[in-house]
Automatic annotation (TrEMBL):
This is DSBA oxidoreductase. Its main location: membrane. It comes from Caballeronia glathei. One of its GO terms (cellular component) is plasma membrane. The chain crosses the membrane at residues 21-44, 56-75, 87-106, 112-136, 148-169, 175-194, 206-225, 237-255, 275-299, 311-329, 341-362, 368-390, 402-426, 474-493. It is a multi-pass membrane protein. It is found in: Cell membrane. One of its GO terms (molecular function) is transmembrane transporter activity. Residues 22-498 form the Major facilitator superfamily (MFS) profile domain.
Length: 501
């Protein structure tokens, strides 16, 4: 009996280092995928200065967002069918190939197309890493691991623009892409050596029609949200035709999933209360997260006179909040075996933080703003990865991949819609208030960066800043109202016992 116990202990000590090593590699993969959603934004002016193509600037970001979102459910399904290890390795290789080619792009068209290729790999990085943990860690212990994933995702979202600015300032914009290569190669080597998933290989039949309908639907919906109010006016017939085509494709996808032998996203998942609620709450969290991250640096640069690098550093309290609450909530869930409380508390904190941010004035002290951002981060960290854990625990093991990708997909679409909607609310509010505040006959420059705003004549400067702050109030009040919907939905979630295997 003693020898049996001894061998079990020694087996545990042999097993733990590979799990830790694998987990570190998966965190690195998650970091790469999340960083590339935001790191390019601060380099865009420099890229345009070298490559030209100002009219296509937004497509450098949109092309990556588009392809990485489209492939999320496909990767989830492929992971369930072929095994997570081979699919994760393939997505890393595609991502690294796209990164190298982006670094050598010679014009804007090449860069946009190669960013789309990079997105085809990047979409798999986050969803497969989260699903891969389900292959090696049981739900009862998974909370603390998922908590760290949430912390890394939040960290990457906030640090991305800051790191991009630093690389552009001290090296070259091309290193934004090259830096992925050594990190990706290390992750690839570790995953190849120590990742041994408990996955059954089954005979598979790929749902090509479902994939085509879903790709068309997501493409049209993301084009509608990213172009509306920016590249095309909201009154544009082309914009609304895009949305109509997206809705028709969505209907085609639902019809196809009812008939397919191996559907991309089984409709039976939508009969699972936890999956539906997690998807809806995730959509709203993505919506509010990306909205907040978009407008807080803008406020700091325009109103407080911060440089882009300073504005990136000043968002650190939000990043710290996400990191602390993600890790702490994960550990507590692993200990108590219950998770329902965290989305409820998290959405309440996010709504409170949004309401506080809606009170920002021109003379609000920075330390108060830091407190509001920390509160927002604490709330977001309690929600993001807990939803993934709840979904993985609720569905059959064979559906873990598609369920994880579904939860991730809703959050990605929420982010895309949030940026577009907040952008429209802000720009329309600012334009209306400026028309009322600026004397007749006075024209502002067509493009006003933070530096140009600081050099406006005193009367115009004060009027602009007041209009800017009032428009921010509207954005955060709307965000608070939307997050309250998520708070109500969170009460309908049920604690399911965390599986021990």
């Amino acid at each position: 009996m003693a020898s049996l116990h001894q061998s079990a202990v020694s087996a545990q000590t042999v097993e733990r280092p590979p799990v830790r090593l694998l987990f570190t590699a998966l965190l690195l993969v998650m970091l790469l995928g999340a960083l590339d959603q935001t790191i390019v934004s601060t380099a865009l002016p420099t890229i345009v200065g070298e490559l030209g193509g100002l009219e296509n600037l937004s497509w450098v970001v949109t092309s990556y967002l588009l392809t990485s979102t489209i492939v999320v459910p496909l990767y989830g399904k492929f992971g369930d069918l072929f095994g997570r290890k081979i699919v994760l390795q393939a997505s890393i290789l595609i991502f690294l190939a796209g990164s190298v080619l982006c670094g050598v792009a010679q014009n804007m068209t090449q860069l946009i197309l190669l960013r789309a290729l990079q997105g085809l790999g990047g979409g798999g990085l986050m969803v497969i890493t989260m699903a891969a943990i389900a292959d090696v860690i049981p739900p009862a212990e998974r909370g603390r691991y998922q908590g760290l994933f949430g912390g890394v995702y939040g960290l990457a979202t906030v640090v991305g623009p800051l790191l991009g600015g630093f690389i552009v300032e001290h090296l070259s914009w091309r290193w934004i892409f090259y830096i992925n290569v050594p990190l990706g190669v290390v992750a690839l080597g570790v995953i190849g050596a120590v990742f041994k998933p408990h996955a059954l290989h089954v005979r598979h039949q790929i749902d090509y029609m479902g994939a085509a309908f879903l790709a068309a639907a997501l493409t049209c919906i993301i084009l509608f949200t990213s172009q509306g109010g920016t590249l095309l006016p909201w009154s544009s017939p082309q914009l609304w035709c895009t949305l109509a085509l997206g809705l028709i494709s969505l209907a085609g996808f639902v019809y196809e999933e009812r008939l397919a032998a191996e559907p991309i996203m089984p409709l039976s998942l939508f009969r699972e209360r936890t999956f539906v609620l997690s998807g809806l709450i995730g959509f709203i969290v993505g919506f509010s997260l990306f909205g907040a991250v978009t407008f807080l640096p803008l406020y700091l640069q325009v109103v407080k006179g911060s440089t882009p690098s300073q504005a990136g550093l000043q968002i650190t309290p939000m990043m710290a909040g996400v990191l602390i609450s993600s890790i702490a909530s994960g550990r507590i869930i692993s200990r108590i075996g219950k998770y329902r409380l965290f989305p409820i508390a998290g959405t309440a904190l996010v709504a409170a933080a949004m309401l506080l941010l809606s009170t920002l004035q021109l003379d609000t002290p920075l330390h108060m703003m830091y407190g509001y951002m920390a509160l927002l981060g604490l709330g977001l960290g309690m929600v993001m990865q807990v939803l993934v854990l709840a979904v993985q625990n609720a569905v059959e093991f064979r559906f873990v991949g598609v369920a994880t990708s579904g939860a991730t997909l809703f959050r990605s679409i929420g982010g895309s819609v949030g940026v577009a909607m907040f952008g429209a609310i802000f720009s329309n509010g600012l334009r209306t208030r400026l028309e009322a505040a600026i004397p007749p006959g006075v024209e502002l420059p067509r493009s006003l960066g933070p530096q140009a705003i600081q050099h406006l004549p005193a009367a115009l400067h004060d009027g602009y800043l007041n209009a800017f702050a009032a428009s921010m109030h509207t954005v955060y009040l709307v965000a608070a109202g939307v997050v309250m919907i998520a708070f109500v939905l969170a009460w309908f979630m049920k604690d399911q016992p965390l599986r021990q295997h």
